[in-house]
Description:
Largest sheet: 4 strands, antiparallel
Order of helices and strands: EHEEHE
Distance between the termini: 7 Å
Radius of gyration: 13 Å
Number of strands: 4
CATH topology: Alpha-Beta Plaits
Amino acid sequence: MIIVIGHLTLEPADRDRHVELSSAAVELARSTPGCLDFSVGADSLDPSRVNVSERWTDRESLDAFRGSGPDTDDGAPAILAFHVDEYEIQ
């Protein structure tokens, strides 16, 4: 199993828009074979933070998802910083 977890930092005024725009990616991920869970949500304490978490059955499923979708700018707010870790559980 692959676990991806972390957070993004945005301007506080942009956070909720980022979460809203992420719903399409969440829906796509959750319907992708190998995705066990995928979540993007506003942090309950920090108005500039968006928490992200993913669980995948295997590396191939995660890589296939990462390689899918358009590489276009959809007008999403700028991410100022991020800290995301990935763990492989045997």
